[in-house]
Amino acid sequence: MKPLAEFYTAKGLALFLIPVFLIFHVRDCNSQAALPAINIKLQPVAKELTSPVGLAAPHDGSGRIFVIEQSGKIKIIKNGAVLPVPFLVVTDKLDGLNIAYSEKGLLGLAFHPGYKTNGRFFIYYSAPYNSSGYDHKSILAEYKASATNPDVADPRETVVMEIPEPESNHNGGCLEFGPDGYLYIGLGDGGGAGDKHGAAGNGQDLNTLLGKILRIDVDAEKPYKIPPGNPFANSSDARKEIYAYGLRNPWRFSFDRLTGKLFCGDVGQNKWEEIDIIEKGKNYGWRIMEGNHCYEPSSGCDTKGLVLPVNEYDHKKGISICGGYVYRAKTFPSLEGKYIFGDWSGKLFYLVQGADKSWSRGEVIAGGRKTNDIGSKINSMGTDENGDLYLVTQNSFGPKSKSGIIYKIVL
Q1: Using alpha carbons only, how large is the chain's radius of gyration in Å?
Q2: Beta strands 38-49; 359-366: pairing state
Q3: Which of 7, 325, 382, 404 has the smallest number of Cβ neighbours within 10 A?
């Protein structure tokens, strides 16, 4: 059955479907008074990138920034310029990308904590999968930097994990190494409106990896080992890779460099975007909840055992959360400890935690504008080695649009 309407995004995130049913609210615990706005400036770092969806730094002392292009290339920004030769090209491995809109593609990149000496890094992408009932498969793969040129990767691939995907959307794709040295992987619920696969939806099904954040050890064994501290490591009724569950489409998450807390922007269905602090073994509610609100059932839902967001906002304020980072660089002390995050609509926000442990939200206004809308679509965010923040943006739709711009946040 076709949805009545679709709001298309250009970043491989979520289809926003206008449903034929109503969602009723149970409560909104984010009604605190708004914080004062933070004023920033955006410094262009690179332009004419092809649909950039992510940014990462290898922490190898080189100062390089690596940009993920959805269409299958990783490019390097070095000494203020984009190198003409891509670091890695996997375009021929990708499932087909609709030129106008697609949530598939090259979606994630993470450098091993020991990258400076071992050259190992991991990517996440969408590959063809010719099996009945599935649209494609998500691939987690390992690569190494070239032994002769640090600005080019060795093209040989080692597949670590394959995840069949029933629909084209909600693919997640975030990869981050945690303070514990393990690799964390964000997976969407498999797509389709309302997490329609399975009796309770994939988000609540512990026998599927979809709708979860996973944690694996990529050092102890090949292709990987289950960390003994994983919440279901000793269970016969759940996938042992699962770290947390009940997520719809955890597009981007990040670890606070100081506290180790794991912040996640989970894309909403129709009305609510949410920020979660992810903890081991916890259930974040989807599809029972959308944010702090009943989704299925539409009212009177049981929140027992669920972890509700630390903050949420409705679609009057944004349409598709990107997630962000807690600022821990030394460059701008006034930003210290603030979780700064974006929405695909072009809007920027921040969170701070009060003495009562609750989180409040304020707006981030760039370049003297009157609102927190930067005038460009925000696909993602990233940090360099120092922890300074960057916006990953594009000005026109599509996974092959050459309108991508990387901005550095400055004051």
Answers
A1: 20
A2: parallel
A3: 7
What is the token pair recorded at 298?
């539409």
pLDDT, one tens digit per residue, over 188-229 is 999 999 999 989 999 999 999 999 999 999 999 999 999 999
Each domain of the chain, given as residue ranges in start order, spans 6-36+52-332
Does residue 236 surpass a pLDDT of 50?
Answer: yes
Contact 184, 176 (CB under 8 A): yes
Query: What pLDDT is recorded for position 38?
Result: 97
Residues 6+ apart with CB under 8 A from 5: 17, 18
Q: What is the pLDDT of residues 104-142, one digit of tens each?
A: 999 999 999 999 999 999 999 999 999 999 999 999 999
Q: Which CATH superfamily is domain 6-36+52-332 in?
A: TolB, C-terminal domain (2.120.10.30)
Segment 383-408 mean pLDDT? 96
Residues 6+ apart with CB under 8 A from 116: 58, 59, 60, 61
- What is the residue-wise DSSP string for 34-72? PPPPEEEEEEEEEEEESSEEEEE---SSS--EEEEETTT
CA–chain centroid gap for 128, Å, is 22
State pLDDT tens for residues 296-341: 999 999 999 999 999 999 999 999 999 999 999 999 999 999 999 9
Nearest to 126 by CA among 175, 90, 101: 90
DSSP string, 202-255: GGG-TTSSTTEEEEEBSSSSSS-B--TTSTTTT-SSS-TTEEEE--S-EEEEEE
283 burial via Cβ count (<10 Å: 0-12, 13-18, 19+): middle
